[in-house]
Amino acid sequence: MTLSLSETTMTADPAAVFARLRAEQGHVAWVELEPGVGAWLVMGHAEVLALVRREHLYSRDARNWRLLQDGTVPPDSPLGPMMFFRDNVIGYDGAAHGRLRRPLDAAVDAIDQRRMRRSVARICDLLIGDFAVRGRADLVADYAVIVPMLAIADLFGLDTMRGHELLVAMQALFGSAEDAQEGNRRFEELLGAAMEGRRREPADDLTTALLHHPELRGDSEVLQSMVVMVSAGYHTTISWIAQSLRLMLVDPRFAARVRGGRLGVDEALDEVLWRDPPMCNMPARYALRDTELGGRAIRRGDALILGLAAAGHDPRVHGGDPGAEPGNRSHLAWSAGPHACPGRVPARLIARTAVETVLNRLPGVALALPAAQIPLTPSPWTRCPAALPVTFPTPDRISGGNP
Question: According to its UniProt record, which protein family does this protein belong to (predicted)?
Answer without folding.
Answer: Belongs to the cytochrome P450 family.
